[in-house]
Design brief:
Blueprint (H helix, E strand, L loop, with lengths): L4 H6 L4 H20 L8 H9 L4 H11 L4 E4 L6 H6 L3 E4 L8 H7 L6 H11 L4 H5 L2 E6 L2 H10 L6 E5 L6 H22 L5 H24 L9 H10 L5 H20 L11 E6 L8 H8 L3 E6 L4 H4 L10 H12 L11 H13 L4 E7 L3 H16 L3 E7 L6 H14 L1
Parallel strand pairs: 1-2, 1-3, 3-4, 5-6, 5-7, 7-8
Helix pairs in contact: 3-12, 6-7, 10-16, 11-13, 14-19, 17-18
This protein binds Double cubane cluster.
Double cubane cluster binds next to helix 7, helix 9 and helix 18.
């Protein structure tokens, strides 16, 4: 990696903390990803992006800033990337998947807060996340209570914090509210950039994001093959990188690896053995570098064939209709698209269970592992009804609760191994 020390200093990162994080990340990446066999050649691009995630990519974002673009950081797939791109801005995901500065975090948040929330606080307090520091505006959303209330504290730490309210039902009133929120977001971006969003801008934003989602969908569908042409770890990594990389370049690279996977499928070559036990993961999002559970699952010889998750199919599967020829029509299409996201903060949320069943069939899963982060009420509460409904269809389910620590590795491995044996 080139020397980015000056850039990190300019961003206000804490060098000791940041070096410690990069060292840990590098080691984890080597042992989890680079030790895999039969990786598609196209993964070399994603390995490169990861190796430069705090270097070259941040440099690119700063160059975009110098050219006048604003960088918008967010924590949720409800923040519409179409609108951000239409405003001439760049979207980056800030969800964090590792514990950091926990002692500091627990001075401002209760201990029994989910790891994902504690993680982005830790990244901020430890000054280790260049994406957070490079962002011109950070958008927090009112989804679960944990995020909603923690943002009251978080916004004191970040300048240019913007709070987006979101509905928790899908009634006509909720739809109206979401549309008003998205309109306010448009106004905020227009105020920041000093430029109005035109119909053409919005159509272009939708086209770019739809192309990215189509490519990710194509990747998902290829995982239905047996043997699976790509490991679940690598597919998850690609989905994680979707939140960081330039969307146009990323789409090209995902389509390129899909071309390669199609050839591998024709030759019945797989990343894992044919007839390996096939697992679908469902539940909380797994942000970089949260690879703990997938690496445990795949180390048993099983293969993960899909993620019913926001960093996975829940976040990417629906496209935005771009047929309207006026701003209001396009905004309606965006609202309709986002209201299809079946996050557990919604009630009722039957769509999610239906989607899990559909994915199990589509990807020929032998069982579902429901992944809940400790203290995440929406997903853990929903895991009971998910289990009940899937078992009615004779789909085996293992409900797991974990966090970002390594302490429960042994216990998790034992439970996953036992589950993989019976499916
Ligand atoms: S649309 S899943 S990205 S809110 S794990 S912080 S829910 S206590 S992340 Fe999410 Fe948007 Fe929904 Fe998706 Fe709260 Fe649970 Fe923590 Fe969570």
């Amino acid at each position: 990696m080139a020397d980015y020390t000056q850039m990190w200093t300019d961003l206000g990162l804490n060098h000791d903390n940041h070096n410690a994080l990069l060292d840990n990340l590098g080691q984890a990446y080597q042992s989890i990803f680079m030790s895999q066999e039969n990786r598609p050649e196209g993964m070399s691009y994603f390995d490169f992006v990861m190796s430069e995630a705090h270097g070259l990519r941040i440099q690119e974002l700063r160059e975009e800033q110098e050219a006048g673009r604003k960088i918008i950081g967010s924590f949720c797939v409800f923040v519409p990337e179409e609108i951000i791109l239409a405003a001439g801005c760049t979207a980056v995901g800030l969800c964090a998947g590792a514990d950091f500065a926990q002692e500091e975090v627990e001075k401002v948040l209760p201990r029994n807060t989910c790891s994902l929330i504690k993680s982005f606080f830790g990244f901020k307090l430890g000054k280790v996340c260049p994406y957070m520091e490079v962002s011109d505006m950070i958008v927090g959303e009112n989804t679960c209570d944990g995020k909603k209330k923690s943002f009251e504290v978080f916004k004191e730490m970040v300048p240019n914090f913007y709070q987006m309210d979101l509905p928790q039902t899908k009634t006509p009133m909720a739809r109206h509210m979401l549309k008003q929120e998205f309109k306010s977001f448009v106004e905020k971006l227009e105020e920041m950039t000093g430029k109005s969003i035109s119909v053409e801008d919005l159509k272009q934003g939708i086209a770019t994001v739809n192309a990215k989602r189509k490519a990710l969908r194509r990747l998902s569908m290829l995982r239905a093959a047996d043997p699976a042409p790509i490991s679940g770890l690598d597919a998850l990594l690609i989905n994680q990188i979707a939140f960081l990389d330039n969307p146009i370049r990323f789409t090209e690279k995902v389509n390129a690896i899909c071309d390669e996977l199609e050839l591998l499928i024709k030759e019945t070559k797989g990343a894992k053995k044919a007839k390996a036990p096939r697992v679908l993961i469902s539940g909380c999002p797994m942000a970089i570098p949260n690879w703990k559970l997938p690496s445990i699952i795949e180390s048993t010889g099983a293969v993960i064939v899909g993620e019913e998750s926001c960093i996975g199919e829940r976040g990417q599967r629906n496209l935005t209709d771009d047929s309207a020829d006026n701003l209001d029509g396009l905004m309606n299409a965006i609202v309709d698209r986002y209201l299809k996201i079946d996050c557990a903060v919604f009630t009722p949320n039957q769509e999610r269970v239906n989607h899990i069943k559909e994915m199990s069939q589509q990807y020929n899963a032998d069982g579902v592992i429901h992944y809940g982060l400790q203290f995440c009420q929406p997903y853990i509460m929903e895991s009971f009804s998910v289990e009940k409904e899937l078992e009615k269809q004779n789909i085996s389910v293992l409900r797991l609760e974990t966090d970002y620590s390594q302490e429960d590795m042994g216990q998790l491995s034992t439970r996953v191994e036992a589950f993989v044996e019976i499916i």
